[in-house]
Amino acid sequence: MAYSELVKNFNKIRDYMREFYVYGFKSRDEFTKKSARSYDDERRRMESWLGDYMKFRQTSDGKNVFISIDSRVSRHNPLYKAWKAKSFTDGDITLHFILFDILSSPEIALTLSEITKEIDKYLCGFSEPKTFDESTVRKKLKEYVSEGLIVAEKQGMTVTYRRAEETELCDTDVLDFFSEVSPCGVIGSYLLDKTDDSNDYFAFKHHYITGAMDSEVMCLLFMAMREKRHITLESINRQRDRISENHVIPLRIMISVQSGRQYLMAYTPRFKRITSFRTDNIVSVKMDDICDRFDELREKLDGMMPHMWGVSIQSNSGQHMEHVEFTVKYADNEKHIHQRLEREKRCGTVEKIDNNTSRFSVDVFDASEMIPWIRTFICRITEYSFSNKEIEEQFGNDIKEMFKLYGIEGGDCE
Amino acid sequence: MIFSELYSAYYNTVAKILKAAVDHTLQKNELRLIIENTAFGESILNIAPALDEERWQLVHADGTTPIGNDPSMPLTILQKRWLKAISLDPRLRLFTDEFPELSDVEPLFSQEDYFVFDRYTDGDPYEDETYIKHFRLILDAIRNRYPLSIDTTNRRGNITHLVLLPEYLEYSEKDDKFRLISSGNRYGSTTNLGRIVSCKPYDKPYDIYRDRSYQSKPRTLEFELIDKRNALERVLLHFAHFEKEAEKLEEGRYLVRIVYDKDDETEIVIRVLSFGPMIKVTAPQNFVDLIKDRLIHQKSCGQ
């Protein structure tokens, strides 16, 4: 098929975009094990959509392509552009604009045959007019009814179609803001496209835009949760390059604003437990039947959350709950450190030992999730203790390794 | 569904083209400009020929159109459901007390359906009436370009008086705080909205000192990444929001460069430390020294 900057299936683009944006160090050769042409096409598409955000670097292994975006500067998530590149047929676009012109206000209600005849009138002025038969028009109308754009009304044996009532759109500032910070923000970006003015009064710091690539998966998960449904998930194990299928009950989306990762917490009946799935590893979501136990299972998750640091609810140690505590010291002009502990803790308690010392303690399902946070207090940790001794040893060894890495302890810098 | 041509750049572009053609006979140059401003880099190669060759039978060869009205499309159910979902967000009240009527619409999600688990807990008070009043006045001042007279508490708890020209609002999802970025203020250009105690329009003559406006001070951090315990993915995802570049040095070893703002250096030091021995900073030297200082202090803690 000839190259087109539009695509039919988002999943392929999602994979390439992730590679170019998150990683960006692979050469063309590393991508082209599957198909050189596919790589060239996807790269060209992204150049067309993202323009200057696409960068190139020549290395000994060839040319590397990567996407580099400072999301504090960009104001609007550039990755949303990929969602606006869906392909369509010549008939789709022609029919779309003619249909909405025929049904130009909600007061106009016409039957299928009346609409079909009207369409012919629009097309007769072209040199080789297209013809749309009733079944094609019916199919398109049905599609638009399911999207909520057209309303079908039955009067006796006759069905008439009219445009749905207009909904007032909210202020563009609201859309500018929430399209960046709200889940499925790409929908807000679609709404912004309907307005002519976007004012850029908002910038975003610590702003992860990676989740944009998983918008469809997120949207389906939310729909399943609202309907309290079972779902079938296909998820990929990237290390093994293997796709597996899971029948689960989706309970909640967990979002990290410090890594941009998003997870689904779901109950897996087969294993009788709640587990997490990274949304960027979910390939597809299929809706199944309604789950009677949804409320009970979500309540169970609610009960677990005070002991979850991240999304893990099981440690490798086999302990049901792991205890962690550490003590930090600070100078008289560093009193904000106590506040930092209070502000940044997600569970557990902070205790002020004296004017210059505070202690944090917690019982969590998986202490290993806390390690990165505890490391941010390096330079003031006076004591630490983990009930999981393997983690405790690793924490200490990592600090020693860091001393070595920077030539502290008299050793040479590696 | 969410990936649909209904929301596509092509449909939006053609809507704009038709809007112009409904109003007047369309010129080739105008067509080109609309495509360049609305669609993608290479779209001109597709949209113009598709209309010219009458594959999309919407514009006649003479630049007229059979379409009689400005193209428009009602909101889809998906768009309404998303709007309903954001109407449940407490931050919406910062903007407005009124929202489009969506009483018969099921929200796409509610606050129970998702949870941000690592947001700091001392975020701004979005339901506080005084905070809302300040937010709305600041947004209005940004829109209409007028100066504000602000009293704010500094870190020591003292009141500072500022006269400034608001430029834009910056929101941090991690801190859950808004900051006002402004010009014309000799005490600095960033003001935390949560610290503002009073805010009103400044009605005296005001000269704009453009040179005082906020300018980032970009610095490039370079570090080696050792891919143990899935560090490659964790680090690159964590620093994904910066302008960055990654290079493979050898199997399991990578060189990463990120561009950060000098004002955020302490925060970046802490973020680098969180990855432990999987990251070794190599440049700039002053950053290496900051890491070393912290490690030396840690050593003095007896570890």
Can you offer a commentary on this structure?
The complex is a heterodimer of chains A (414) and B (303). Chain A folds into 4 domains: 10-68; 90-163, Arc Repressor Mutant, subunit A (Orthogonal Bundle); 213-307, SH3 type barrels; 322-405, Alpha-Beta Plaits (2-Layer Sandwich). Chain A contains 14 helices and 15 strands. Chain A has helices spanning 10-23, 28-31, 36-50, 71-74, 90-102, 112-123, 134-147, 172-181, 186-193, 215-226, 294-304, 336-344, 371-375, 389-405; strands spanning 54-59, 62-67, 110-111, 150-155, 158-163, 202-205, 229-237, 242-255, 262-268, 273-278, 282-290, 322-329, 349-354, 357-364, 381-386. Chain A is elongated, with a radius of gyration of 27 Å. Mean pLDDT of chain A is 93; it is low at 410-414. By secondary structure, chain B is an alpha+beta fold. Chain B has 3 domains: 1-73; 129-212, SH3 type barrels, CATH 2.30.30; 218-300, Alpha-Beta Plaits (2-Layer Sandwich), CATH 3.30.70. In chain B, 31% of the residues lie in helices and 23% in strands. Chain B is built from 8 helices and 10 strands. Chain B has helices at residues 9-23, 28-38, 44-52, 77-87, 129-144, 231-238, 265-273, 285-300; strands at residues 114-116, 148-153, 159-172, 177-183, 190-192, 196-201, 218-226, 243-250, 253-261, 279-283. A 5-stranded antiparallel sheet of chain B has the order 5-4-3-2-6, with helices on one face. In chain B, strands 8-9-7-10 form a 4-stranded antiparallel sheet, with helices on one face. In chain B, β8 and β9 form a beta hairpin. The longest helix of chain B is centred in the middle third of the chain and has 16 residues, at 129-144. Chain B is extended and about 80 Å long. Chains A and B meet through α1, α3, β1, α5 and α6 of A and α1, α4, β1, α5 and β3 of B. β6 (202-205) of chain A pairs parallel with β3 (159-172) of chain B.
Cα radius of gyration of chain B in angstroms:
26 Å
Low-confidence stretches of chain B at least 5 residues in length (pLDDT < 50)?
A: none
Shape of chain B: extended
- Tell me roughly what share of residues is in helical segments of chain B: 25-40%
- Please, how many domains of chain A? 4
CATH topology of the largest domain in chain A: SH3 type barrels
Which residues of chain A form runs of ≥5 with pLDDT under 50? 410-414
Q: Main β-sheet of chain B: number of strands, strand sense, barrel status?
A: 5 strands, antiparallel
| Tally of individual helices of chain B | 8
Largest sheet of chain A: 5 strands, antiparallel
- Tell me the number of structural domains of chain B: 3
